[in-house]
From TrEMBL:
Listed InterPro entries: 5'-Nucleotdase_C, 5'-Nucleotdase_C_sf, 5'-Nucleotdase_CS, 5_nucleotidase/apyrase, Calcineurin-like_PHP, Metallo-depent_PP-like
UniProt superkingdom: Bacteria
Signal peptide location: none
Protein name per UniProt: Bifunctional metallophosphatase/5'-nucleotidase
Family membership: Belongs to the 5'-nucleotidase family.
């Protein structure tokens, strides 16, 4: 008998095949495409099929944001109704499921048709808080045990009010506890982990910059009894065997569907063995859009389109750019505008922000919510922190790690590209003047750090505006933290920008060129 395990992961609410940058664009991803692939694979499979939604479904796209923050009732039901059109057996929680708070997440779980599994996010008493830790599904006489795990690093990124009362246990520790239990109850053990690999899959060398965020390699290396592993979180496209265990990771936004096939044989005593296995990704790039998903989503999508295209403000000058790498080396009017908004909103002396991905192109004229949502892609609000000059210099040194020198030219440090793209961890600063010299060793790259024309001193006190992910130390900024936060915004950054434009309907595209990134070797 064959058992097929299908999975999507990190769809982030991207139902339609668009990144929303250009109205009417059709690209090779989206839940509506992945749904067609899943339905086809379910219909043609030889033997039973288990289908998994592997997390990060509740946040990410303008459509998901519209449901959570713009619709009057702020109820996840319209989004969950779309996902419910797909015949998922189980669902895993991703780290972004907490971005809109626990009440919103609990409502989403209530509305989900799939069984939510989460073994390592615990309540104050150490019991699983969301759904069950595992489920045993019987199909065609085969008992399939499915364990749900989420990256423990949620607590490092999420603001405290969104995860109050929760404990985040290591996925490895939880798997070590539950895999033997499931093995006693089921014929096949499938581990579904919203997390990825912390080591190179060929060499076994560590390649992660955040200890504990990804534990899949350690799980497969040290815990016997796992027959298949479904992963996510890193947005990689993987289909391979690790320690002779098939594993998949299907990218993000519904680019592909993970598919693991297990050939099963039952002994005379009833014991089931996996005699052969195969892992692959089934691309959704050319799949037609699933009609059930379209029917459930069309009216909502029309609302979102109307909301995205309402003009909010006008620009004197040009606030667009074409080269995101160049925009991280030389200040653009777009970045300066974001910094001005952050400083004005929070009453800060200085500000830091990032160009979050390489799809960003700045604000077109007139500025619409589409521009805002496709440039500032995360729902974080702002925090105001009291920091010292020493903290500031240390943070700039962390940002400077983004760069390296390749063939004599400034380039992106590969650690920010693989195993996961992390452009969002390179910040640019406003309210100070500084230079990053990437010819120098890491930790010694910050030069000419000035505040109001005077050198910044280590003991100097400054008030800085940051997004809430960075404010609690997210992205390996250990010099920041919740203990330094003195104020927080009420709304998300997209709302803050829209509110600012209501008060300033015409803005000037300007830059003060307060920072530079250079490659100047010392004599």
């Amino acid at each position: 008998m064959k058992l097929t395990i299908l999975s999507t992961s990190d769809t982030h609410g991207y139902v339609f095949p668009t990144n929303y940058v250009k109205k009417g664009s059709h690209q090779g991803f989206g839940l509506a495409r992945a749904a067609t692939v899943i339905a086809r694979e379910q219909a043609t499979a030889q033997g039973p099929v288990v289908t998994i939604e592997n997390g990060d479904f509740l946040e990410g796209s303008p459509l998901a944001y519209y449901v959570a923050r713009v619709k009057p009732d702020r109820n996840p039901q319209p989004l969950m109704n779309i996902y419910n059109q797909i015949n998922y057996d189980c669902g895993i929680l991703g780290n972004h499921e907490f971005n809109y708070g626990q009440e919103y997440l609990q409502d989403a779980i209530r509305d989900a048709k799939r069984s939510i599994l989460c073994a390592n996010i615990l309540d104050a008493n150490g019991n699983p808080e969301y759904g069950q830790p595992y489920k045993v599904i019987e199909k065609n006489g085969i008992k399939i045990g499915v364990l749900g795990l989420t990256t423990q690093a949620v607590y490092k990124w999420e603001k405290a009010t969104n995860i109050s009362g929760l404990q985040f246990e290591s996925a490895f520790i939880a798997a070590k506890k539950y895999v033997p239990i499931i093995k006693e109850l089921a014929d096949v053990v499938v581990v579904c982990y919203h997390g990825g690999f912390e080591r190179d899959l060929v060499t076994g060398q560590p390649n992660d910059i955040h200890v504990g965020e990804n534990e899949a390699y350690h799980i497969l290396e040290a815990i016997p009894g796992i027959d298949a592993l479904v992963t996510g979180h890193q947005h990689r496209q993987l289909a391979t065997n690790v320690f002779d265990i098939p594993t998949t990771q299907p990218g993000f936004r519904g680019q592909a569907v993970g598919k693991i096939t297990l050939d099963l044989d039952r002994d005379a005593d009833g014991t089931v063995h996996v005699t052969h296995h195969h892992a692959e990704l089934v691309s959704a790039a050319d799949a037609p859009l699933d009609q059930k998903v379209l029917t459930a989503a069309t009216d909502l999508n029309n609302e979102v389109g109307h909301w995205l295209d309402q003009p909010l403000g006008h620009i004197k000058g040009d606030m667009t750019f074409t080269d995101p790498f160049a925009a991280r080396i030389h200040e653009t009017p777009y970045i300066e505008f974001i910094q001005k908004v952050q400083m004005a909103t929070m009453g800060a002396d200085i500000s830091a922000t990032a160009l979050f991905n390489d799809e960003a192109r700045g604000f077109e004229n007139p500025i619409t919510m589409r521009n805002i949502m496709t440039n500032y892609v995360y729902p974080n609000g702002l925090s105001l922190l009291n920091i010292t000059g020493a903290d500031l210099k240390a943070a700039l040194e962390v940002s400077a790690r983004y760069f390296t020198v390749k063939d004599g030219e400034i380039a992106v440090n590969p650690a920010f590209v693989h195993p996961k793209r992390r452009q969002y961890n390179y910040d640019m600063y406003e309210g100070i003047d500084y230079r990053l010299n990437v010819a120098k060793p890491m930790g010694h790259r910050v030069e000419s750090l000035m505040y109001h024309g005077e050198p910044v001193t280590p003991e100097q006190t400054l008030r800085i505006a940051l997004n809430q992910y960075r404010a609690v130390g997210g992205g390996h900024y250990a010099m920041y933290g919740a203990d330094k936060i003195i104020a927080e915004s009420q709304g998300a950054m997209s709302e803050i920008i829209a509110d600012y434009l209501q008060e300033h309907p015409t803005i000037d595209a300007t830059t003060n060129d307060n920072f530079s990134v250079v490659n100047e070797p010392q004599d």
